[in-house]
Amino acid sequence: MLSGSIDPHYAIAGFLVGALVGVTGVGGGSLMTPILIVLFGVSPATAVGTDLLFAAATKTVGSLVHGFNRTIDWRVVRRLATGSIPMTALALMVLSWLNMRTGGAHQMVTAVLSIALLLTAGALIARNKIFGIYSQRLANLNDRSIARLTIAMGAVLGILVTFSSVGAGAIGVTALVLLYPGVSTARIVGSDIAHAVPLTLIAGLGHGVMGSVDFHALVSLLAGSLPGIFVGSSISARVPDTALRYVLAAVLIIVGSKLAVDLSAQPKANVAAVHMTRVSKSGCAVARGEEHTTDAISGPRRYSASKLRPNCSPSPKSD
């Protein structure tokens, strides 16, 4: 029964992402949405919704581990949640409005996802350089200023994660390390994971209500991710972290750029579709008008073949 309900392809993808999360700690989870889009052909909106609930489940396990090890700073979690939860609710309302009124939720998700993937890649590549530039500037801030910046960062993460499911890991941890240099890396990572649980859960449930979650794929992904996290954590000390981060960033840049190109091509395709629709609707009127027009060179126009002339006769009415 269980084997019949689990897709091995999704399970392998879950194992791969789980292993990357185990090795990198943060950033590996950002690969799930690109995998669903590129390898499985899932629409960006459904990929985001599925990945959000996938992240909520896996990060819950991670939070329990960090809570047991007492590597969570709940003060940081509260500040992040103060900014992220309201913005998550607002972003879900915007998505719902776009979906009902204009059907533009797909374009919005794709656009934000492309930006979030590129930002995450930048955070993975330039992490040390960012620390070198901003660490001294932020070191002298008082606690009130740090609290405000943390809340603002939470708000940004709430929007990014709700629209794209990406950014809570690499971007969030990079910002927290800058804002809290005196907090250990383990507590920074634990706090970021603990904050991501309510954020991804609320956002994922909102996507589920709008119908953009593939629950069958979600179960299969989770079945593969748990052993993947265990394996990745076991070999993390033997894997070169820097090289892996650059490879991961390269993949995110490629996928993010592809989504941006696809999105820029959509308006042209939509304009062409509208033009063809208008032409097809006006074909009868044009044809009727041309029956009475005369070309100055060739005389009265004729349709040489019946298929060149639109069928403008009214359909017979049934009694």
How is this structure best described in words?
The chain is built from twelve helices and two strands, in the order H-H-H-H-H-H-H-H-H-H-H-H-E-E. It is an all-alpha fold. Helix 4 (44-68) crosses helix 11 (215-235), helix 5 packs parallel to helix 8 and helix 7 packs parallel to helix 9 (170-179).
Write the layout of secondary structure elements.
Blueprint: H1 2-5, H2 8-24, H3 32-38, H4 44-68, H5 74-101, H6 105-125, H7 127-139, H8 143-164, H9 170-179, H10 185-209, H11 215-235, H12 241-290, E1 294-295, E2 299-300
Antiparallel strand pairs: 1-2
Protein traits:
single chain, 319 residues, mainly alpha, two-stranded antiparallel ribbon, 12 helices, 2 strands, 76% helix
Let me know the number of strands.
2
Summed up, the helix count is: 12
Please compute the radius of gyration using only Cα atoms.
Answer: 26 Å
Q: Level of helix content?
A: over 70%
Sheet with the most strands? 2 strands, antiparallel
How many individual domains? 1
The N- and C-terminal alpha carbons lie at a distance of 55 Å
Strand order of the largest sheet: 1-2
Q: Low-confidence parts, pLDDT < 50 over ≥5 residues? A: 269-275, 285-309
Sheet/helix structural class: mainly alpha
Q: From N to C, what is the helix and strand string?
A: HHHHHHHHHHHHEE
Q: Strand content of the residues, in percent?
A: under 5%
What would you call the shape?
globular
Mean pLDDT: 80
